[in-house]
User: Which sequence fits this backbone?
């Protein structure tokens, strides 16, 4: 059974078709990357899976169950999303504690104090951050909170929308290591959007390259080492990102 | 004392209660650092105090007439003089604080939440909901406040309760507009999207996530509007459509004093000063609150 399965997925915003004919299968426990330049529709695919872009046709199923077009309650316990900008994805007036307890409250889960404390430890945040507000934390700390919020309901699938691109380089490495560790510990499936190829080779098993709303190639992440891409667009993208075995050293 | 303070200002509070108390304490300190806000708060405390303890503070009865002592100028016996029926104006002003406070509190309780919810719902859902709700709001906004209040009072009959209802009905549209504008700025933001993905209902998002972001600007706006509300109430009283005699409402008192304004200036002036002071108090406090209520302002200025 695949964790995420997209069949003939077309997504539109109003009358504009943004994504066309996407077919992707992500296996359970896999880490899969969506790569492409800005405006290629990769974030839109994530939004459609999450339910934030309801205007789609085709088929989306998650852990074997097809999903409807709206945000739904049960779906939340199986799949969560981490957003790109940790400055915009946390409520400015809510403390870390409130943000992390809320999913538990909505789903009627008990033992909140212990769960919040455990989760803070799991994402590597000191307990003294528990009652802090977003403006009292750095970007990296905020992103840890956002990841913690997504994990509160113990989902199996995580949608990551460029989780590190708003952070500076040293913090990026920390967050990537955190994500990698969490995946190993909790057996998560990742679907990650990024335009940073080194991140893909560090984090992911396979990747789909998107261009102008279509998937042009699905390749194993190892292709980033040997450059064995078949599609001309992918080859250009690979070359443009300094596509030779040397870029691995820039990690 | 120092212990208490360091507990409140603890960088890493141990419990939710400590964190909340600490935040309130920080806000209070920031407010106390603003001298004008303190002046405003003192004026309002005096108003509340006068309203609560009117029977003990007032030197005379607010209603008792003494026709032998009519229109006496301010003196040691009557600090603010007496009116045309020989009633002590100071006592009437003190008792009038009760009416003023009641008007202000009731209007705030009725109109602010009403406007807040209508605005937030309208901004959050957008589309047809927005069009209908804002259409209604615009209809109310387009009518002059005092005239609309006059029409309501004329229809419902004069009296303090009807004046309050009339003022409340005419003051919510401004709050609805502000709440809607605020809501629009973050309805598509990622923290709202993230909350939806966690499985929160629309009601929960509006109540727990949208409203808290609107309330601070709303509180400021309400305190600043208090002056206007007092003036409208006084205006209705002045026109004889608000509080009815012999209730010591400030506006009505000015209206009665108008007849003697050239020879016995104190009859109209004293309640006028009370209105000005209280309006100023609310304005000062409102300004102070605006600076304090934004948590991002912490530490700045």
Assistant:
């Amino acid at each position: 059974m695949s964790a995420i399965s997209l069949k003939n997925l077309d997504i539109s915003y109003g009358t504009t078709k943004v994504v066309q004919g996407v077919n992707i299968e992500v296996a359970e426990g896999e880490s899969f990357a969506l790569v492409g330049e800005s405006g290629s529709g990769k974030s839109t695919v994530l939004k459609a899976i999450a339910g934030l872009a309801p205007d789609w046709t085709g088929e989306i199923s998650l852990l074997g169950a097809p999903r409807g077009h709206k945000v739904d309650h049960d779906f939340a316990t199986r799949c969560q999303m981490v957003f790109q900008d940790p400055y915009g994805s946390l409520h400015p007036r809510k403390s870390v504690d409130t943000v992390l307890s809320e999913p538990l409250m909505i789903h009627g889960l008990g033992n909140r104090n212990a769960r919040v404390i455990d989760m803070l430890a799991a994402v590597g945040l000191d307990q003294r951050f528990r009652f802090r507000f977003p403006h009292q934390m750095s970007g990296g700390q905020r992103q840890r909170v956002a990841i913690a919020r997504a994990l509160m309901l113990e989902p199996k699938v995580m949608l990551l929308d460029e989780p590190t691109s708003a952070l500076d380089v040293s913090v990026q490495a920390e967050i990537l290591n955190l994500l990698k560790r969490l995946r190993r510990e909790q057996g998560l499936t990742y679907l990650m959007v990024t335009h940073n190829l080194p991140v893909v080779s560090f984090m992911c098993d396979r990747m789909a390259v998107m261009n102008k709303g279509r998937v042009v190639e699905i390749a194993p992440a190892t292709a980033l080492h040997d450059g064995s891409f078949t599609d001309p667009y992918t080859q250009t993208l690979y070359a443009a990102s300094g596509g030779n075995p040397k870029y691995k050293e820039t990690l | 004392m120092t212990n208490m303070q360091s507990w409140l200002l603890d960088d890493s509070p141990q419990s939710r209660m400590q964190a909340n108390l600490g935040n309130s304490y920080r806000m209070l300190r920031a407010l106390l650092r603003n001298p004008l806000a303190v002046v405003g708060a003192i004026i309002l405390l005096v108003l509340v105090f006068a309203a609560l303890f009117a029977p003990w503070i007032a030197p005379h009865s607010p209603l008792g007439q003494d026709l032998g002592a009519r229109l006496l100028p301010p003196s040691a016996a009557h600090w603010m003089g007496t009116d045309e029926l020989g009633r002590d104006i100071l006592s009437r002003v003190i008792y009038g604080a009760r009416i003023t406070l009641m008007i202000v509190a009731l209007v705030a309780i009725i109109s602010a939440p009403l406007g807040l919810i209508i605005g937030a719902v309208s901004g959050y859902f957008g589309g047809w909901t927005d069009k209908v709700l804002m259409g209604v709001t615009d209809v109310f906004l387009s009518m002059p406040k005092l005239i609309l209040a006059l029409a309501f009072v004329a229809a419902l009959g004069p009296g303090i309760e009807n004046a309050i209802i009339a003022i409340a009905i005419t003051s919510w549209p401004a709050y609805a507009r502000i709440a809607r504008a605020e809501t629009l700025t973050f309805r598509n933001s990622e923290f709202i999207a993230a909350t939806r993905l966690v499985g929160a209902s629309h009601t929960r998002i509006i109540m727990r996530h949208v409203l808290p972001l609107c309330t601070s600007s709303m509180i400021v706006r309400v305190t600043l509007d208090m002056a206007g509300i007092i003036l409208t109430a006084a205006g209705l009283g002045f026109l004889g459509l608000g509080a009815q005699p012999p209730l010591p409402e400030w506006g009505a008192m000015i209206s009665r004093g108008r007849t003697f304004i050239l020879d016995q200036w104190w009859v109209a002036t004293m309640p006028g000063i009370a209105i000005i002071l209280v309006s100023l108090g609310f304005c000062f406090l409102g300004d102070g609150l605006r600076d304090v209520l934004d948590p991002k302002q912490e530490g700045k200025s």
Q: What stands out?
A: The domain at 2-90+155-250 of chain A is CATH 3.40.50.300 (Rossmann fold). Confidence is low (pLDDT under 50) at residues 247-251 of chain A. Residues 169-186 of chain A form the longest helix (18 residues). Chain A has one domain: 2-90+155-250.
